Amino acid sequence: MTPPTPSPAAPVEVADEDSAIPAKTTAAQGTESRSPGRLAWNRFKRDRTGVISAFVVIFFFVIGICAPLIAKLYGKDPYTTYGMNIPGLLNEFNFPVKPNGGIDGEYWFGIEPQLGRDVFTFLLYGIRNSLMIAAAATLLTTLLGVVVGITAGYLGGKTDYFVGRVIDILLAFPQTLFFIAFWPVVLAIFVSPEENTPVWLTVTSLIAVMTAFGWASIARLLRGEVLALREREFVEAAKVTGASPARIIFKELLPNLWTPILIQSTLLLPAYVTAEAGLAFLGVGLQDPTPDWGVMIQNGAKFYQDDITFMLFPGVSMVIFVVAFNLLGDSVRDALDPKTKR
Amino acid sequence: MSSTTPLLDVSGLTKHFPIKGGFPIRRTVGAVQAVDGLDFQVHEGESLGLVGESGCGKSTTGRLITRLLEPTAGKIVYRGRDITHADRKQLAPVRSEIQMIFQDPYASLNPRQTVGKIISGPMEINGIDPSGGREKRVRELLEIVGLNPEHYNRFPHEFSGGQRQRIGVARALALEPKLIVADEPVSALDVSIQAQVVNLLQKVQREMGIAFVFIAHDLAVVRHFSQRVAVMYLGKIVEIADRDDLYGSPRHPYTRALLSAVPEASVDTAPRDRIRLTGDVPSPISPPSGCRFRTRCWKATEKCASEAPPLARVEGDAAGHLTACHYPETEQTVPAPRLAKDPEAAA
Hints:
A: mainly alpha; B: 10 helices; globular
């Protein structure tokens, strides 16, 4: 029996005093207010998996940041070849004398075969370097992706079309293959093949190449989000009041984009950690004397038939880190975006 | 209608949305003629209602007046200043005087901003510093629209639809505008809340002397709110008149048909004539020649197909009652919309 038009003539005759009612009823609710961010934080705190993984992730970052301090307290460094310097640690085949990779009270995670470096400090510095590179690449990738994505989405038209095609090409590229093939070329531009490549150059070029290939997916995602958001009425409302494009982007759009940005970057970082380790393992990226997760796994792979210990420490620690970070990313998404059902 | 220079003078306003197509080179293959040659005026403190079916160009008109859209042709003059093609900088002085209230209270407030920020935003953009500070002014505005000033730090998701629309009204009032374009401000709201918001708008209009362009598809709400009413059909105004003239003696067949379709809550009165329009609204991509209503009009002749009727005064009508029809209705007393209920109409 409901009439097809939403409002019959009757309701407009309701008296004026009605307008006072909502003010009264809401007054009782108190003045405490919860922002969307606060609500997400509360949801996150209830998510046990998320909290535990957050602690694991924080633990890894603390270890990475404090690596020099820990190494100092522990009294060793990752470069000294203890096995070669101190007799009695390595046998005639250059393997640790003690079982399980030479684990004892002095060398907590054992010592490396051949060179006899301390595994514990090497792992600490490896975590430090890997996380530094991955974090820097994530930060740059996110920044570039956000800028390009928002610009393309907000401007639309030809800019959007052009950026869209660039993204298509980048996403169609076989990235790992490209790294292996292209990276020596990039290095050759800066350093002649005879010279040793300085570590800083390796690191910067790694970060640069990973960023160059990583921004496309974030940019595409944000472009879509901006396309949807810029048609919303609150953006029109800002335009009607005379807001500048900069204000609309930074004050109206960006706060609504933090959710996808945060989710994407938390999922990106562990991907970069594994990618960086994979490249180092393949011989692209950081090379042996520089401590790194991938370098350690590469070293471990040489000996795992005789002693799996050297593979175990970097392998297990990396798996724990990546799994924890991915779970954290999922929890962050669940907290920020509770409507998305998995 | 007392003042001679209107607040807003719209003439020949046209908006055609291009349709792109073709491969490999995309080009314009046609146009949606959303709004086609509108002429109307809004005087200071007056409320003009724009009614019509969905898709007749009401909202486009509202967005053209607030310059969210660029007109294809025609002229918009606000207080003697031509703002038809003004850019953002040129519009700046006018911006604070023309404000807008949106249809969807859930989409028109930024979910990441507090109510205080939403309402003080316009003042911030336009560099307005009221005495006592912006926060004090926001709290005043909240009180004016019937919300608790303590809600300053709350977020939109904590409010109901009606309350959100009040926030939208407060935001529009923040700049002390002379003209508010209200784009279906109540049609997304619950029927019981509609009345509250309409009454709030009416209070605002009366007390602050703000002119309104009130866009709605609900004839009852428009009758309640607007002093003048324009009926739109397929991008054109078919009839414009003072409220009582339009509702009392509609001249255009379409207006009559619209009025006769208003459902009536009363059961006791005698059954009324209900005009049933057959067919659909023609596509605005290729509107009918001549009078756009002719495909559904029961009076249409060959003249209607060949010649577009001008919007003109019909003999015997009050000044300002303009109708675009070759064969205007003559019957003076049309029992609408306070008519008896048609048993079929409610079904």
